[in-house]
Every structure is written in C-alpha cells, then in structure tokens.
Design brief:
heterotrimer; A alpha/beta (about 270); B alpha+beta (about 775); C mainly beta (about 70); A: about 270 residues; alpha/beta; Rossmann fold; eight-stranded mixed β-sheet; 9 helices; 8 strands; globular; B: about 775 residues; alpha+beta; Sulfite Reductase Hemoprotein, domain 2; Sulfite Reductase Hemoprotein, domain 1; 6 domains; five-stranded antiparallel β-sheet; five-stranded mixed β-sheet; 22 helices; 23 strands; about 15% strand
Chain lengths: ~270, ~775, ~70
C-alpha cells in the first residue's frame, strides 16, 4: 500500500519512530482491533487507536450513553445522551480519522456471538466492567487463539495484562469468577475517571505494539498501579498447568455466559 | 499598416505562463513559496536576483542580437521606470534591465509584451538567446547572412514547450564565416556558414563547446549540412540532450559534459538516432524571414554634414563600409555595456529613421548600428554627441574591453571587473599609448572563473581570485593570454600567472606598451606572444609580485571600486568557486614540501604541518576561513570529519592537532599521511561547483546495480523532511542509495543525524552554491 | 520470619503461616477477591489453607479488578 501525502503527514509522528516507520504504519492501517465495551477503558482506547490509524475498529456495546458515563467515557459527549454508545463512538472515530473503518455492534458480547465476532480481528481489547464478560473474553480469545489486553480498574487502582496465544491467560491468575457476594458493592464502584483513561491508553499501546511487532508486551506480567500513591508494580507470573482454560487439562472447552453481578449503578 | 518587424515571435502560451508567474511571485512574496523553488521558476523567466536582496535583473531575448529602435526605447523606458535607469548590453548579445524590485518584475515583463520582446528563457535550463556574428548580413567576405536562421530558429524553439525544461542551459550560435565571430566553438551547438564545392550554402556544425570553470572547445559534428537542416539538427540535439543529459547533477550536465561522458562515437550515435528520424522531413525546414539589409526607402530627415578631426578619427575608429554599396555599419562603444534611458531615446529616435533592422548587440557589450546610408553618418555622429555618455572620442580598444558585472551585482563574483575596467582605462588614457594601433585587441575580464567576461577567448584575459598575505585576503586576478578564435582552430587562452588587482592597470599598461612598440615586427599577436610576449607577461607578474602588508596599505586589500575590504563571508557560503583554487593550491604545495622535509627528520613538526595544511586545504570550499591553526583543525573536524567527507577515523588525530599535542603525532604518522592523500583525492573529485563526488567506499558493485534515488525536500520543514526520507528508505534494499536535498538550518542539522541514528550511512553531505544541502544516504 | 509481601519485606512474629492465615493477618477482608502468587507460582485456591509460608518466601496478593465501564 502507498500512503498518500495526507496520510504521511497525519502519521508522521509514527513514521518518525524507528520501531514504527512506514512499514509499521502500514501494519497499523491494515490492522483490525475489536474493542469490547466503549466505556471507561474502551473510550480512550478507541480514541487512540482511531487516531493511530488502525484500519478497522470493531466496537461492541449494548448500552446507551448515560449522564454518569460522561465523567470518564471520553468518547461520548453531552449531546450524545441516550444515543447508543457504539453509534456515539462511531461518529467520533469518523471525525478523528476518516481512514478508520468502524464495525459498530450494538449488542452484548456473549457466549453465543463471541466466536463469530472475534474471528475477524487481530487483537481484542477488554474494556468491559464485569467479571462474566472478562472471563468470557479470556476464554473466547484463548480458544480462538486471539491476543487480547485485559484491563481492570477499581477506585484508584488499575491492572492490566496482555495475553497472546500460548502464553499465560487471565485465568492463570484468576482461576474463576469471584463469588457473586464478593463482587464490589455500590460504594466500591467509584472510579477516578482519569484512571480509566490511564489504563485504556496502556491497552491501546499494547494493541499497537502487538500490531507493529515491536517491544515487550505485558505477557506473563500483571502490571498494577495505585494512582493515589502513583506507584506502579509488576508481578511476573507463569502459565499455570492447572488453568481451567489454557492448562494441561482444560475443563472449559466451550463458552458460557456467567451470572451477572448484582451491582449495576448505571441504571441509577 | 503592416505589423512592426520582430526578431522573433513569442509563443501564444507566453501570456498564460506569465499569468502563472505572476501568481508565483505573489505566493513567493506572501512567503508561501520557498526562495529556492521560486528561483527555479523565475530564472526560466529571465529574472535573476542581484547581490542586493530582493533586487532583480531581467534578461531580455534578442535573437541574433537584434532589437528594433522602438523595442530598445521601450526597454529603456521600463528600465528607467522600474529599474536602475539604464539598459545593459550583455556579452550574450541581449539586453538587461537591472535593479527591479519584486513587485515591479511583472510590470516590466508585461511592458515588454507590448513591443514583442520576452524574457522567457533568459536563464534556467532553457534554450538561451541564439547568437550570431554581429555583422552578419552586412560584412564583406561573409559566406552568407546567418541572422535569418537565428531568427527563425528562435521563434521555432520558443514555441516548443520542451525548450523550457532541459537538463541544463542550451546555447546556440551561428557564424557568418570561418572567422567564427559568432564563437560557435565555445557554445553547445554552433553553425558556421560555408559554401561547399558545389556552390551550395550550408553549415559546418560544432557541438559540446563551452567556457566556464571547465572550458571545452567545441568538436566538429559535421563538416557540412545543407542550409535547410539547421532546425532538424537543433531539434535532434535538443531531444538527445533531453534524454541523455544528466539531470541529477546540475554542475556537470552541459552538453560538453555529455560528450566527455559518452565519448565521440556514442554521442554521435545517440544524436543521429534522433537526427535520422527527422532529417529528411522537409516540412520541418525553417521558414526564413525576409531580412533585408538595405537603405530605408523613405528617409524623412536630411543628411547632416560634419567635418573636423574629431569626426574623422571617430569615423576611422567606428564606421565600416557594409557589403551593400553606400551603407555603413557603426559601432557604439558603450561604457561597461550600459546605455542611459535619455541616451537611448536620442539614439533610437534617429535610428528609427533608417528602418527597423538597424541595431545589433555584440558580444563585447557594444551596440552595432547598420544599414545607415553614408550620407547620414553625420546624423549618427551628432546624435552620439548629444548623448550624456561620451562615446565619440574613445579609442576602439577601450570600447572592445569586456568585463562581467562582477561582485557589485552578481552573487557569484569575487572581484569587481567593472572597477578594474575603469582603472585600466584611466591608466591607459593618461599614458598616451596609441591604442588606435590595436583596435581589435581583446582585453577581457571576469570577476570569477565563470566566463561571463569571456576571458577564455581573450588576447589578454583576467579572472578574479583571492590572494592571501599573512592570512589576509586581497583581490587578485589570474592572467591568461593567447586565445585563438576561428572555425576549427579555436583555442582557449592559457593561464600565465596571477597578480594583485591593484597592480593590474600597471601590468596592462606595461604589456601593451611593449606590444604596441614591437607588434610591427610580427605577423600577428600569436607570433609576438611566442617570441617574448609570454615571457614578458611572466616577468611582469614577477615584477608586480609585491603585496604590501595590510597595515602598510589597507587600500590594497580593497578592490577597484569597492566600498570595503574583501571578505570571504561577503560572497555567501560556498558561492565563490574562484580564487579558492589558488588558496587550495597553496596548502597543497605546503603538504608536498613538508612531506619531503619529513624524510629528513623532525617528524613532530613536519607531521603537524602536514596535518594542518591537510585540514585547512579544503575549508575554503565550504566558505570557511581559519585565522589560526587551532581554528583550522576545529573547522575541519566539524565540516569534514563529522560530515563523513573524510573517514571518521581521522577524528582523533585532528583533535591531537587542535590540542597542539605534537609529540603524539609520530605515532600516527601513517594515518596523517593517509589523510593528506585522502584530502588531495577529495579535491580531485571536486567539481567546479565545489561539490565532492565522493564515491561510497564499499558499495561500488552495488552502485552499478542500483540507480541512486533522488528526492527534493527543500521547503519541507522538520520533521516532515525526515518522515519523507524514511518513507523513501523503507522499501529500498540494503546498500541502495538515496540522495535528498535539504534546506540549510534546522533540516541539515537534524535529518542526517536522525538518518544515522536509524543505522543508515550518510555518505555525503554538501552545501550547494545556493545554500541548500545535498545528502547522500546508504540504506542500512 | 521475614517474608516479602507485594514486593515489600515484612517481619512477622511467627515461624510459619498458611496463606489463609497470612491473608487474615494482613487484614484482607475478602480473600475471595485475591489470587496469590507464592514464590513465583500462581497458587491454586484450594491450597490456600495448606500452603505454609516460611522465612524468605515471596508472596503476591493479586486482587480481582472488575471495573472498566
């Protein structure tokens, strides 16, 4: 492919990077990334990936834009209230970068559609807000052999890791869903908006690194940060032989929808 | 009423081209077009920037050197209204107006349209003004008149769009006889009128001639072509040049370089490939204008009779009978090629009485009048007497002196030949030498090695250089002598020595005094030169060798007519290709002599000297001047080692030199001697625009396989220039080369380093005459 | 014993503790929300009450973080 003059200029700051360059940018322009959830994590990730020129962005979300989202879900603007989130996101992406093709799926990411949606993408970003979805994404990606970036936030804390086929998965750390009664209560569901931004952009950076094939991904490492103290920590971990999905004797061989957690302050 | 006579017809596309140029000027003025880009646009319209910024010269085409009185009057009017107030006659048989401000450039160009004149192709890589013998059509003994060919060829050429975008400028001239007063052998393509054994008119054809810093005498292409093939030959040469000319290197792509590169057989083969396609197409034959050299039928003024000694002397000096009975040609010895508007008015009003075919420009920057009935010589004399500039009482010798405009206006100049010309005149006039004994003597001066002052074809020629005394620079000239001009026998003048600018008037006086005295003993000037003339020049160079110290005579360090002392930085970076050759040679000689001394011991001192002179030798080519040894090492390190013009391994020893650690040098003896060798090799690779054609060291085989890609990133700001460079490099294979052009300043400071950081090699980095940079990169 | 918890060295006035006891000692109120890495290996949850932590061990508490929306 040949970049036109406008593209050369638009992506000049990428091209300048020795590890990106023209070939890297071409890879980005040819890449397809699925973002599951266009909320606190998905919004910044979508913005950066769109700006970076990722050729195809899939976005899946079944929600509509709510007033309480606007504090952190930066792809949605006040006039978008009550608009489907994927529609709102699609409009912004088009404004940022018309190079990007958007597949907007107004739906939930569930066991019945997961594999079908996944199959067209090179990389997946987990921007969901609940454990059933996070475990489903993990299991589906492991089965479909798709790399993905996990992200989770809580109050002032965040954590992220990247799975690539053959390496440790989310279940290698977190064996299974926490019991429903242990899921954060409403009081714990608070989040400093900027922290979602920090994490979403880390996930976008991981996706881009994967696409251009440069650097060290967060594989077999869990990166954690406490933004209150602004301390980052990394814990190395290994693929766990007893992992239910990627271990030596996997017990999970098909996808299923787990029970939804009880707390849902979005409806407030 | 019939349309007024024109020496050429402009192309119908000219107005649209001027409209576009007007837009470009506006964009340039608004800062939207980079000066370098604008330069390319304007020079093809004959618009040159003068030494004063934002001041322009406009060069106007005069095919066969012809201009009508009405046209000249208009040029003078425009020059007065928008320019410096005078019209300048050039050594290329055209006229120029000077000192035009940017906002007035189009007004001048549009004004020229009114009288059918055009500045299109005045410069740039175009078909330039087509020249002829100044007396063609009127001269006794000529083969035949070549002006109609030049005129028809001009019109044809300027109607062809490809004439404006050639690899390099293309100069054509025609001579009316084997005497070759059209200088066909010093031009790209020359036609000499001749009549063959069968009595047919035709031309002997020369090509690949040219002056400049690397002069070459034209080679015979054909002994005879029929007279109706002039267009076909020119067209074929143009196509061949267009296809094969080296567009990559502006400085070695005149036709003469193509001849050298291809050798005769291949050059002729490629030419004939094109020529044979069109040779027999008679529909392409030029339609010659009916250019009459005759007395105008209805002259409305009465003849004026003038008598007296002064008139007779003037007549003897400047009036010549034409081959047409009863008509005369008259030479007007313009001072420095200039004519004031008022004087042009006076003259043109009278000349208009005698028709339209009455004026030619000649190559000695003089005006030639023709087709004046004998009875009216007095009218012309009286008109000349009325002029502000006194032109009637100077010896023809003075009028024939040629000088370029020099450093006063030209951006390339080193010396000021106009000032020197005046100084020589003053010296000779006061001396009472009888210059009327040598009216045709050619005393030609150029301010730099470019040959605008035609020093290569001089009897006695000078071209500017920089002299040095105790590190201080003074203006000086190289002395040349003994050119021959004539079809098939042209030889360039040979350099005999050099002399300080301030001694030149005395030098010229002493030489001419001897020549005038002894000339009658010899058949011709060449015989005189061989039998003592050359020796005299050499001994005079010796006699005038003394140069006072700056403290003793500061005036000596100021050129004739200059306002201040000579300075290198004044010329702009690397713009001075001239005297620097001599400066380089000084260091070269020192390297040789210290290398010899080294054999006899004192290694520390001799190695230091070799290191120093090696370091200093080529600094001048980058426009750098070092006052001290330390500075020379420092500049060398920065501009030659760091730019990879020489191998980086010399860096350490240069640092030792800079620190003055002489005791360490013997350990690095081999390296220092290698450096001295490399520097001299580098110098050999330098072309006349001071660029080093450095061959990449290891990639000689790869190079043959792969053409160097070339990209122009002038006007592209940081970091987009680097972005674009990367984009070009990425798909290239390892070892392939990319040549980029970059602006001075931030781009040249950043891009090559960034390229290196990515692991590629920067093989060459050189600043061009115009200030921009050429960088050769090898992909990692 | 001296052990390293979440990268920081701590002295505990015991010679040995199970993971569950350590979580209690560290006042982790919801052990269900923690995964534990013991000396570089992810520990199966069923071993939380059998795996002993002794002098020089390295333990990481990794918390579930389910937020994102």
């Amino acid at each position: 492919m040949t970049l036109n003059d406008q593209q050369v200029e638009r992506y000049s700051r990428h091209i300048l990077l020795q590890d990106v360059g023209l070939s890297g940018q071409e890879k980005i322009l040819n890449a397809k990334v699925l973002i599951v959830g266009t909320g606190g994590l998905g919004a910044p990730a979508a913005l950066y990936l769109a700006a970076a020129g990722v050729g195809t962005l899939g976005i899946i979300d079944g929600d509509k834009v709510d007033m309480s989202n606007l504090q952190r879900q930066v792809i949605h603007f006040t006039p978008d209230l009550d608009k489907a989130k994927v529609q709102s996101a699609k409009e912004k992406i088009a404004l940022i970068n018309p190079d990007v093709k958007v597949n907007a799926i107004e739906d939930l990411f569930l066991a019945h559609n997961a594999m079908d949606i996944l199959k067209d993408y090179d990389f997946v970003i987990d921007g969901t807000d609940n454990f059933p979805a996070k475990f489903l994404i993990n299991d589906a990606c492991v089965m479909a052999k798709k790399p993905f970036s996990h992200g989770g936030v809580l109050r002032f804390d965040g954590q992220t890791m990247t799975h690539v086929p053959g390496e440790a998965c989310y279940r290698c750390i977190f064996d299974d869903l926490p019991p429903s009664n242990a899921v954060p209560s409403c009081s714990q569901a608070g989040i400093l908006g900027a922290i979602a931004g920090m994490l979403g952009t880390i996930q976008a950076a991981e996706a881009l690194k994967f696409i251009i094939g440069k650097g060290d991904l967060l594989t077999n490492r869990l990166q954690m940060f406490d933004a209150l103290k602004m301390k980052f920590r990394e814990v190395k971990f290994k693929k766990r032989a007893t992992c239910k999905v990627c271990g030596e004797n996997p017990v999970i061989t098909e996808l299923k929808d787990y029970e939804q957690p009880v707390c849902d302050i979005r409806q407030k | 009423m019939t349309a007024p006579f024109r020496f050429y017809q402009s192309a119908p596309t000219l107005i649209a081209e001027q409209d576009q140029f007007e837009k470009d000027v506006k964009e340039f003025t608004a800062g939207n077009i980079h000066p370098v880009k604008f330069k390319g646009i304007r020079v093809a319209h004959g618009v040159y920037e003068q030494r004063q910024e934002h001041t322009y010269m406009i060069r106007i085409r005069c095919a066969a050197g012809g201009i009508t009185p009405q046209q000249l009057k208009k040029v003078a009017e425009l020059g007065d209204k928008y320019g410096g107030g005078e019209v300048h006659f050039t050594t290329r048989q055209e006229v120029q107006v000077h000192e035009v401000l940017i906002q007035d450039v189009l007004k001048v160009i549009r004004g020229l349209n009114e009288v059918g004149l055009s500045s299109r192709g005045g410069g740039g890589n175009t078909i330039r003004n087509i020249l002829t013998s100044p007396l063609s059509g009127v001269e006794k003994g000529e083969a035949f008149d070549v002006d109609p060919y030049a005129i028809a060829l001009t019109t044809r050429m300027i109607h062809e769009a490809d004439s404006w975008n050639l690899p390099r400028k293309f100069k054509i001239s025609l001579s009316n006889s084997a005497e070759d007063t059209g200088y066909t052998q010093v031009t790209c393509l020359g036609f000499v009128a001749k009549i063959n054994d069968k009595g047919e008119q035709g031309f002997e054809v020369y090509t690949a001639g040219g002056m400049g810093a690397k002069p070459m005498v034209g080679r015979q292409l054909y002994d005879f072509i029929p007279e109706n093939k002039v267009y076909q030959v020119t067209k074929a040469m143009k196509i061949m040049f267009d296809k094969n000319g080296n567009r990559r290197s502006k400085y070695s792509n005149r036709i003469k370089f193509l001849w050298k590169k291809l050798d005769r057989d291949e050059f002729v083969r490629l030419f004939e490939e094109e020529y044979n396609k069109i040779k027999d197409d008679s529909s392409l034959d030029l339609v010659l204008p009916d250019l009459k050299n005759e007395a105008k039928a209805d002259i409305s003024i009465s003849p004026e009779t003038v008598t007296g000694e002064a008139f007779e002397l003037w007549k003897k000096r400047y009036v010549e009978a034409q081959k047409q009975d009863g008509l005369v040609a008259i030479k007007l010895p313009l001072r420095l090629g200039d004519i004031y508007k008022e004087d042009a008015d006076v003259l043109c009003d009278v000349l208009a009485e005698f028709g339209e075919n009455v004026i030619r420009c000649d190559r000695a920057q003089n005006m030639r009048l023709r087709n004046i009935p004998e009875a009216y010589i007095g009218n012309i004399y009286n008109a000349i007497q009325k002029m502000k500039m006194h032109l009637s009482d100077i010896p023809a010798f003075i009028g024939n002196m040629i000088n370029c405009t020099g450093a006063s206006t030209c951006k390339l100049g080193i010396c000021l030949p106009r000032g020197l010309s005046d100084a020589i005149k003053d010296r000779l006039v006061e001396s009472k030498l009888n210059l009327d004994n040598i009216p045709e003597f050619k005393l030609n001066m150029s301010g730099c090695p470019n040959t605008c002052g035609m020093h290569h074809v001089a009897d006695l020629g000078f071209f500017g250089k920089i002299g040095r005394k105790e590190g201080e620079m003074y203006p000086a000239y190289n002395v040349l002598a003994g050119a021959t001009v004539g079809a098939g026998i042209t030889k360039y003048a040979v350099r005999q020595g050099d002399i300080a600018s301030h001694h030149v008037p005395d030098f010229v006086h002493d030489f001419l005094e001897n020549y005038i005295e002894e000339r009658e003993d010899y058949d011709n000037y060449h015989a005189y030169l061989e039998d003592g003339g050359i020796d005299l020049i050499k001994s005079l160079c010796e006699k005038y060798k003394q140069v006072p110290l700056l403290e003793e005579d500061p005036g000596f360090y100021k050129d004739h007519g200059a306002r201040r002392r000579m300075r290198l930085d004044d010329m702009g970076t690397a713009e001075c290709s001239a005297g620097m050759f001599d400066m380089i040679n000084v260091d070269k000689r020192f390297i040789d002599s210290f290398s010899k001394a080294l054999e006899e011991g004192n290694e520390e001192e001799n190695l230091f000297k070799i290191l120093f002179h090696s370091s200093r030798m080529l600094l001048v080519t980058r426009g750098l001047d070092s006052k001290t040894e330390t500075q020379a090492f420092e500049l060398f390190g920065k501009h030659f080692v760091q730019t990879a013009l020489v191998d980086e391994r010399y860096g350490d020893v240069v640092t030792l030199g800079k620190l003055g650690v002489k005791a360490e040098l013997p350990k690095h003896k081999d390296l220092i001697l290698e450096l001295a060798g490399d520097i001299q090799a580098l110098y050999k690779k330098m072309d006349d625009s001071l660029r080093f054609n450095v061959a990449p060291k290891e990639a000689s085989t790869a190079e043959a396989a792969s053409e160097v890609k070339k990209k122009d990133y002038r006007g592209v700001a940081c970091p987009m220039n680097f972005v674009k460079t990367k984009i070009e490099l990425e798909p290239m294979g390892s070892g392939q080369k990319l040549e980029i052009l970059l602006d001075d300043g931030e781009p040249i400071n950043n891009v090559p380093n960034s390229v290196k950081l990515e692991g590629h090699k920067v093989l060459e980095k050189e600043q061009n005459k115009e200030g921009y940079w050429r960088v050769l990169i090898e992909k990692k | 014993m001296k052990i390293t918890i979440n990268g920081e060295e701590e002295t505990i006035e015991k010679d040995s503790l199970t993971i569950i006891e350590l979580l209690t000692h560290k006042k982790v109120d919801m052990p269900e929300m923690v995964s534990v890495e013991y000396n570089g290996e992810m520990l199966d949850r069923e071993k939380f009450d059998t795996q002993a932590v002794t002098d020089g061990d390295k333990v990481e508490f990794l918390y579930f973080m389910g937020g994102g929306q």
